[in-house]
Amino acid sequence: MFWDTEAFVLPVLEYRIRRLGPARRRAGVLGRTGARFPRESALTGEDVIPTTGIDRNGETVAIGNGDLEEHITAIVAWSAWHYASWHVGWAFLEGPGRPLLVDTARYWASRLRWDAGGHAHIDRVAGPDEYHEDVDDNTFTNRLARWNLERGAEVLERTAPDTGEASEWRGAAQALVDNYDPATRRYEQFAGYDGLEPFVAADVGTPPIAADFFLESARLGGSQVIKQADVLMGHFLIPDGMAEGSLVPNLDHYLPQTVRGSSFSPAVHAALLAPSGRTDEALSLFRLAAAINLDDLTGTTADGLHLAHFGGLWQAVVHGLLGLSVPRPGDMTLVLAPHLPDGWEEIRFRSRWRRTRVALVCRNDAVHVACDRPLAVEIHGVPETVRPPGGWVG
């Protein structure tokens, strides 16, 4: 299991709950509290990522992902929260899923470094952009950690007497730096990124490309070329956790610098472009994403299919083109804002929403909702209750 699994394919929550023991032990070995989940996990719950590998020159090189890609811990919490939001509500988070939010928040609280000015930092990490490793204050990691601290505090307050710990987590979340510049409404990908060698994807080739096959690691790590935009991944996974009005400026800044060395990068960007009104660009990237495996665009299909990328395609349609918003665990309203590209008449989509079977026919001007019990919906900001067997809304 990778972080890709929970973020793009399937929540493996029972598996994570049963392996809390190894996650807690790993945190303890590192001198921290709570639970720290592994970058790659298999049967035992211990990290099974290789520590060395062979580079393109046939030389043995160290692999630091297991130590550096800590966002997996926040993604486990994210998966649990979204499972509850989509399907079962607070019962899971107040019951068996509680430690997936609380223990992970406890880990982040113990992971922070505080400076003399009262700001919190997370040092020595790598985000999804694996071209830049061992960096400080990676925006994606810090924003996910902040989100985890805030959601963990919320669950803790609902399930335990007040000891002040939840308030400490909220304070830490607010103190955690995020590299945001209000003047440009742009996030720096990590501390020092803007000072690297200016380099855009077109200088390397036509995406998608694996830039690490063309540039030496030192040159690549010292440039602004990125495998996938960590900042944009933050907008994709926790849109309510990023600054209002920051999506478009960051799309404009980071898309030209992204070589899309990750298979699910084009689908994520398509999902972000659609609600921004750039449906033609979204459709172009969606088609690119659809062809990655079928046309073997990256020359890696023989090594296996990119399952997380398939999940990204689904999310590009459902969350991007259809604008389906995932609510909080107690919110029962299905929210849609379709943004179909020119030439697409409709998208049909089936789901089970809070134990209600739902079949949708989505057009830009209206949505047909079929359901087996009364359902609260909101289409382009207009609320309505649909009763079985359903009808057009909008």
Description:
The protein has 15 helices and 13 strands. The mean pLDDT is 93. The chain has a 4-stranded antiparallel sheet, with no helix packed on it. It has a 3-stranded mixed sheet with strand order 7-11-12, with no helix packed on it. Helix 11 (230-237) packs across helix 13 (265-273) and helix 13 (265-273) packs antiparallel against helix 14 (279-294). The chain has a domain at 3-262: Glycosyltransferase, CATH 1.50.10.10. The chain starts with a helix and ends with a strand. The relative contact order is 0.09. The protein has 394 residues and is of the alpha+beta class. The longest helix is centred in the middle third of the chain and has 21 residues, at 139-159.
Tags for this model:
15 helices, Glycosyltransferase, alpha+beta, 13 strands, globular
